[in-house]
């Protein structure tokens, strides 16, 4: 209740004095905010032997100017404040404002400070501290002219001295005051300043990366949409040479979500060609590539959401040995493709790209495919169901007349390793990422049509980055890059309507049969009929050539 009787600007500050000797018998009400009247009467009637011979009396700061300290000695006068400091001998910062008041208004050079510390733990132990303060430079002006001396107050304790206002010429320079400012509702409250943007290294890196990209928008391409790139979730199937370079290019464009899928471990030949790995990753049998690549990316850019999954992608032509494990990998891959926006096919073998192509086609995802030869590379985007049928672009398997099979079965050890010129992978990876960014900037996104064959340089009028080709084939030996456009094939073993429908209807059962049963995919996709038609044509051609030979022989 005492708090509500005091001006709010004085909350947390108060005066206290000790009343000793015969003053205890006078009619002075001595109390603290925690005392109750019954308790005070009890203490008078039943005073223990260890009770001190003084009582405390407190008052608001304003009572100093009405003679609160006039009837006690200087050693029993305390100017107090509620101290939040937890240091044993260091008071809180609000003492500075109190000292300014004491010196500038009350003109005191010496005083006794009580740092009142009320804690909820071990309340029986003293926590408050008391110390004396003396001004190094005495206050200017007539000290006694402002307030009556203590001795004068002792002679006439009932008097209420009135302070004289101090002329500006006697006040001296006013120090800067520290305290709470009024908020928008005119309430005294603390102001919080978030310095994280200026001191947190991670946030500084975020600002620097974003600034580099914003310069593209401010200076080169005002219509570019950087947010859609930043929000695109990318799934990289393959964490090897292509995966390493693709991921670095993606974070350079501001992509914040990258997921790796790979079942291999880092070998001694990898670090020199795959920049996300080091020699230490090869030790003790090698670290898992997917997880190690994700960790390496997070060291490069801590704000990146990078994860790795050690999954074996079920491959056409590779019979299932452990159906339970393969089914788990199938379900996990299916979920990952559903959770991401863009899928990069960066694996070593052709057959490992078949199932992700089918899954992504069914889900309508953006698919970017990159593959390497010795001195050549190929980068392409797959068509999506939302494209008009006459403009639907083909996939990686649309040019094949046979279904994917085990390409490693009869290969020798040296043929199982990817042998390529060192510069092919960075070039293919960079173009794969640039192709994705161009797709995202096109008004039709994944359904963007490829430039016509008769005008491969054609550009969309509203595209900030130029054209969006279908396929790029690079040849290092001749330093050429060809832009090719290929239509979707109705009998494709991966993206044809028949295959996609079977996958949507049967799911795992279709995939299991396609992997285990030789010739099944060719049969259901229509490739078997195409092959039979070609064989029949060859037979007809051979028979026709045989008849012509017979006729020539008869003429001779």
Task: Describe the structure concisely.
The protein is of the alpha/beta class and 556 residues long.
Number of helices: 17
CATH topology of the largest domain: Rossmann fold
Q: Indicate the radius of gyration in whole angstroms.
A: 43 Å
CATH class of the largest domain: Alpha Beta
What percent of residues are in strands? 5-15%
Please identify which CATH superfamily of the largest domain we are dealing with.
NAD(P)-binding Rossmann-like Domain
Tell me the helix content: 25-40%
Biggest β-sheet description: 8 strands, mixed
What's the domain count?
3
- Calculate the mean pLDDT score and round it: 83
The CATH level-2 architecture of the largest domain is identified as 3-Layer(aba) Sandwich
Distance from N terminus to C terminus (CA atoms, Å) equals: 134 Å
> Structural class from helices and strands?
alpha/beta
Runs in which pLDDT lies below 50 for 5 or more consecutive residues are 27-46, 142-165
Spatial order of the strands forming the largest sheet: 10-9-8-11-12-13-14-15
Shape: elongated
Keywords: Autophagy, Protein transport, Transport
Pfam families: ATG7_N, ThiF
Family: Belongs to the ATG7 family.
Main location: other
